[in-house]
Automatic annotation (TrEMBL):
Keyword Signal among record annotations: yes
InterPro entries documented for this protein: Lipid/polyisoprenoid-bd_YceI, TTHA0802/YceI-like_sf
Pfam families membership: YceI
This protein's UniProt keywords: Signal
Signal peptide limits: 1-25
Protein name as catalogued: Polyisoprenoid-binding protein
Superkingdom per UniProt: Bacteria
Domain Lipid/polyisoprenoid-binding YceI-like per the UniProt entry, residue ranges: 38-202
Length: 205
């Protein structure tokens, strides 16, 4: 009985929040139900996290932000969708200010010479209701190579804060930094780099 007395107000509060904010009820989690159209990257909630094995002891991470770009989404024919993004490499951040500055230098990313990394999709293949393999050309440190993203659709709907229709995805990839000429401290800092991407896209009106 005590549980019921406690749970009823909580349930009422949750229903009240949904009623006051109907956008909460509009989010779809089936990719086929998302709106087709042209989307722009929403940079405030888009992050690219990278992780490397440091001296065999820890997986050390950093993040890139301020991503820009477009997504042409066709939910009826996903294979015709296209993704193009640009990442300002100087946005790199770690928990060490010294390392962050070092990564921007010419022994690592050399951001003065190569200020942006880009990814342009060349093929999209659905592997499940909400999952796809996205192949494209990644340009980093002046080198362009084909790379593959494993992409998962999270949800889409009207953003309760800014009232814009938003679609969200997460993606993972693994690449070798030496393939792009970033070889400092290999193999003590792993050549293999794991990427985890949180991508938010706002639909153009």
């Amino acid at each position: 009985m005590a549980y019921k007395l406690f749970s009823l107000p909580v349930a009422g509060l949750a229903l009240g929040l949904v009623a006051a904010n109907p956008a909460c009820a509009q989010v779809v989690t089936d990719a086929a139900q998302a709106q087709s159209g042209t989307y722009d990257v929403e940079p405030a909630h888009t992050q690219i996290t990278f992780s490397v094995l440091h001296l065999g002891f820890t997986n050390y991470s950093g993040v890139f932000s301020n991503v820009s770009g477009t997504l042409s989404l066709d939910t009826k024919n996903p294979a015709t969708s296209r993704l193009s993004v640009s990442i300002p490499v100087a946005s790199v951040q770690t928990t060490s200010a010294r390392l962050t500055d070092e990564l921007k230098g010419d022994q690592w990313f050399d951001t003065a010479k190569f200020p942006a990394a880009t990814f342009d999709s060349t093929a999209i293949r659905m592997t499940g209701k909400n999952d796809a393999v996205v192949t494209g050309n990644l340009t980093l440190h002046g080198v362009t190579r084909p790379e593959t993203l494993q992409v998962h659709f999270i949800g889409a709907g009207v953003n309760a804060m800014d009232k814009k229709y938003t679609a969200g995805f997460e993606a993972t990839a693994t690449l070798k930094r030496s393939d792009f000429g970033v070889k400092m401290y290999v193999p003590y800092v792993s050549d293999s780099v794991t990427l985890r991407i949180a991508g938010a896209f706002e639909r153009r009106d």
